[in-house]
Request: fold
Amino acid sequence: MSTRTLIRGGLVVTAADEVHADVLIEDGRVAALAAHGSDAAAGWTADRTVDATDRYVIPGGVDVHTHMELPFGGTSASDTFETGTRAAAWGGTTTVVDFAVQSAGHTLREGLDAWYAKADGVCAIDYAFHMILSDVNAHTLKEMDRLVQEGISSFKLFMAYPGVFYSDDGQILRAMQRSAENGGLIMMHAENGIAIDVLVEQALARGETDPRYHGEVRKALLEAEATHRAIQLARVAGSPLYVVHVSAQEAVAELAAARDMGLPVFGETCPQYLFLSTDNLAEPGFEGAKYVCSTPLRPKEHQAALWRGLRTNDLQVVSTDHCPFCFTGQKDLGRGDFSKIPNGLPGVENRMDLLHQAVVDGHISRRRWIEIACATPARMFGLYPQKGTIAPGADADVVVYDPHATQVLSAETHHMNVDYSAYEGRTVTGRVETVLSRGEPVIDRREYVGRAGHGVFIPRSTCQYLN
Reply:
């Protein structure tokens, strides 16, 4: 059964263009675009017509950094693939790339299969996987080649969390050398975890146990040092490098210096670093625990460097690092010891709206909004032009967005499976109205009409941003 949907009268915004156009969708893909009111558009008929007058028509968001059901610190992230992908759709995101985890002592295949099983048949939107390497050895290096062929073309390593995810410089170099050969992209959590553990131990010994000390021990200089080291190791290996959740101006400077040398080094930041700060970590009582994540929130003055990095393309992508833990029953595991607070914030539902607010505030342009939230993440991780744009042949992942509506972000109204909002009470301008995933409505005029299992696994090609 062929189905045709016509989106009429909107301003189509992609990373490359802004054009008043009607969009014709057929069998789950974008079939054509034509100027609104043109003879071509006037002749189109469809089973379903969406009126997008005074609205933006944008590609569905691509969030390449989420952690659904991630085991961490004796508990697990509170969003399942079902609840998390539904919340993503509410926020205008139509593709997530989550992290499958290799546990130390196990193979990559075992970790990947466990994540396939978690996501299979329950996702509201399409999904893909990166692979976390926790145990780099001769066997897992060989497995990397097979995963790239299977469409798992990126691998995350940690310079932080000794005893959990940590890899030493030799393991990192070996993984980078392997990815230089097989086309994979190394993603790096760049913080000097060995030094941080010393500072944690010393802080706790002094009786500094409150959430704000989480930010004080995870020093910006230790993020910058690790970023610098990762860049040099990638240079030695001849591999590209993608640094995740960049939060500190000193780390941005390291990326900028590498890019000025023409190195294939890329950086991602997250809404929490653009909109929140150590002021949140220092909220009275135990409230600061809500904002414990790693890399940590920084003093407000770092935000200007992050916005500048996004404008100059020294930072290319904004992802969420969505890793929610409930305040009651999870975050409070760290009462009396900040090092036991599970690390992570909820945000998969808020990213597109917060970045539209950044357009309203003059930090970025409309096209840059789509570039950092849709097109570049898709290109960086081998999903473009199937995802990340509105063009003939692309998947019909399309959002009708009302740029004039205002909304108040709140745990009372969000759809993430977590008992607080990191942005509680914040008013933003702009709101998702209708969301299509491969041509099928998921959100229809602010009503959820999607279903668990609509989302499918998308194998990825290698990084297209290098070409």
The mean pLDDT is 97.
